[in-house]
């Protein structure tokens, strides 16, 4: 959309633009109203757009009553130390700090508890019997399915039954 400075047509911009288009039709007038997300995008709260925003659109949206709370907003510029205080974990790495600032705590905790990424999975270039033997030895694989040349093989680890 030229008048919005060509935002990328991906989430969330595609949804913001689509909602505004529906409002143009339902209200019978372009920019008679605008959701907070439209206002924030056009005022630069989501970063600088790829191209210039049409000044007429910006003037019309800035004049809407619901735009007032967003007009004098300034992008926060916290230091890493400020963020560490906010998170309440002074000794963590920069990487963990950014994770904790950007994502919910329970998601970060679960990710860190899972440990490093596993990279020792059975390779597909081994003969099938070697793959099966390797999978049977592993305790972290409960299900495996393989199809090749019209033959299907499924392995499923059974849970031990209580006596």
Structural commentary:
The protein has 3 domains: 2-71, no CATH class; 80-113, no CATH class; 118-157, no CATH class. The chain is mainly alpha-helical and 163 residues long. The longest helix has 15 residues, at 13-27. The termini are far apart. It has helices at residues 13-27, 36-42, 55-62, 68-71, 80-87, 94-102, 105-113, 128-137, and strands spanning 143-148, 151-156. The protein has a two-stranded antiparallel ribbon.
Coarse morphology = elongated
* Beta-strand share of residues: 5-15%
Structural class determined from secondary elements: mainly alpha
Termini gap: 68 Å
Mean pLDDT, to the nearest integer, reads: 89
- Share of helix among residues? 40-55%
Query: Unreliable segments (pLDDT under 50, ≥5 consecutive)?
Result: none
The radius of gyration computed from the alpha-carbon positions, rounded to a whole number of angstroms, is 27 Å
SSE string, helices as H and strands as E: HHHHHHHHEE
* Main sheet summary: 2 strands, antiparallel
Strand order of the largest sheet: 1-2
How would you summarize the topology of this molecule?
Layout: H1 13-27, H2 36-42, H3 55-62, H4 68-71, H5 80-87, H6 94-102, H7 105-113, H8 128-137, E1 143-148, E2 151-156
Antiparallel strand pairs: 1-2
Helix pairs in contact: 5-6
């Amino acid at each position: 959309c030229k008048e919005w400075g060509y935002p990328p047509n991906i989430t969330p911009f595609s949804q913001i633009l689509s909602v505004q288009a529906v409002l143009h039709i339902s209200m019978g007038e372009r920019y008679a109203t605008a959701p907070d997300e439209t206002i924030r995008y056009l005022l630069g709260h989501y970063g600088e757009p790829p191209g210039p925003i049409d000044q007429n659109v910006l003037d019309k949206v800035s004049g809407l009553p619901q735009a007032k709370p967003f007009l004098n907003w300034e992008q926060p510029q916290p230091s890493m130390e400020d963020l560490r205080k906010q998170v309440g974990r002074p000794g963590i790495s920069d990487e963990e700090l950014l994770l904790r600032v950007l994502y919910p705590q329970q998601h970060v905790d679960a990710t860190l508890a899972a440990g490093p990424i596993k990279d020792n999975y059975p390779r597909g270039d081994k003969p099938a019997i070697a793959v099966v033997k390797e999978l049977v030895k592993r305790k972290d694989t409960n299900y495996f399915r393989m199809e090749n040349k019209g033959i299907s093989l499924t392995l499923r680890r059974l849970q031990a039954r209580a006596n």
